[in-house]
Write a structure and sequence with these properties.
heterodimer; A: 6 helices; about 40% helix; globular; B: alpha+beta; five-stranded antiparallel β-sheet
Amino acid sequence: MRILIATPLFPPDIGGGSWCSKEAAYRLSPLHDVTVLTYGALPEPAGTAKVISVPRSFLPLRLARYFFTLLHLAIRSDLLYIENGASVEVPTALLSFFWRGDIILHTSDLAAEKKNSGISAWAHQRILERARPVNTPPVRRPEILPFSPPPTAELVLYERSWEQHIAFIESSHYA
Amino acid sequence: MSAHGNNTSLSSKVLTMHNALQKWNRYVTDEMVRLTPLLARIGVTLEDTQPHTTGERYLAQAVTTTSGKKLILIGRLTDSDTRVIVKVTTDPDGVEEIEKERSARNAMANLPFSYDAFLSPKELRYERWGTGVISVQEFIEHERPFLARPLEEQFALALAAFKKQEGSRAATYEHRRIAHKAFDSRVLSDYQKSLRIFREGIAAALPDNQALVTLLEKSAAFVEARSEDIERYEGFLTHTDFVPHNFRIKGGRMYLLDHSSIRFGNKYEGWARFINFMTLYNPPLAEALVRYVQENRSLNEQTSLAAMRAYRLIELLYFYARTLSQSEGNLLLLNKARIRFWSEVLASLIEGREVSEHLRREYTTARDSLRSDEEKVRQAGLH
């Protein structure tokens, strides 16, 4: 399956769904053809996924660049997995007029969701009408701290949540 | 070289050191004479003992290229007897530094992106004094020296502080413009340029030390090979001199004492300074922080940390190499011992091995025996 992950933030960025999109790319890439589209200059590698970034420049310019890159990549993809955020949702909402593929929406950035208004609110609504939402989000890997016992139970929960999330993603493409 | 030539060379070195020390002492005396009536006018009395003007402080002023000349004095508010810190300078670079520190403190409170600002000591008075400035700030008492706290607490406090700093990221186009107005920033090319300056400076100060020259070549190659990861983690707000004498913990909150060292740069520059410092002062804390990054952060981040540690160690060697011409007697022996110790730490880092505990103890014993009494007083309770 050809999966395109579109995210506003990706490591080294901190915040939002940056950690989630990297983990998803890392876990999916051994089994599928995975591309990540994000913003930035030097995103971290993620397994064997191809990571493409659009430079952070003047807002209209970067949105336009992101949209055209997204369109170019989406045409070659079976499934689009997006992390919420206006800088991805607006281009994706526009894409949805040209592309009829399957979309998954992961709302990991609750602060961004609350800020939606005007165009970003329209884009979010447009995507909700098209996308399959992630209802059971995966958990973040627990920290391993030098002076604390290893988080064994948390690590089990973490692995389980990701197995479920990957299964959810894989089942979202109606071939 | 003839005996006569040797004596001339030695006496010119002694003269240089005495000149630097005399210059500093004269500067302190002259400034205190001029300052005292002005401070009285704004309601501040200086304490009799001024530890931050003595010991090796003159050396830092003589060799540093990053900060201007300024005095850091301890005083009290006349009306309330509250202890205060007085930062004063008439040196243009010193004025720029104090004003930069003020701007940094104000800017941190107003950054648009997510940043949980550290507390800063309140500025109680700010006066222009001819071409100089005086800044009177709250004195934050040590509840307990950082290094006297349990190891787990030290680790938790340090990690929390680094995470707070990482919470900022001048990631967007708009943020970058705002960030550049408020703070200096460093990118890969700046680090590379500084590295060249450090290597040239060390080679000039120690031309006969082939082992050190070889180590520096290998270390520079080590850093250069990790350039991409240095660049990858740019754009983070970082306190580049984050060591215990630059912060205080009171009521569970951390107060930063030196805002002039805050800038946008590599995420791990502050970590590097702190971990290198703890390699000497508290090796288990250094090891715990390195282990934390290994177990919780990406390989790229681990690489960036290692590169920044090497960079900061080379910078430290550059600093001490430049003190040699200003030192003599025990201080000269001490600075040579520092160069030997920190060279070994650098070699251990790039070779991926531990610093020997024996070597660390040997160095601290030598340091403690060679330090002047005044410097010992200045250092007491600092960390």
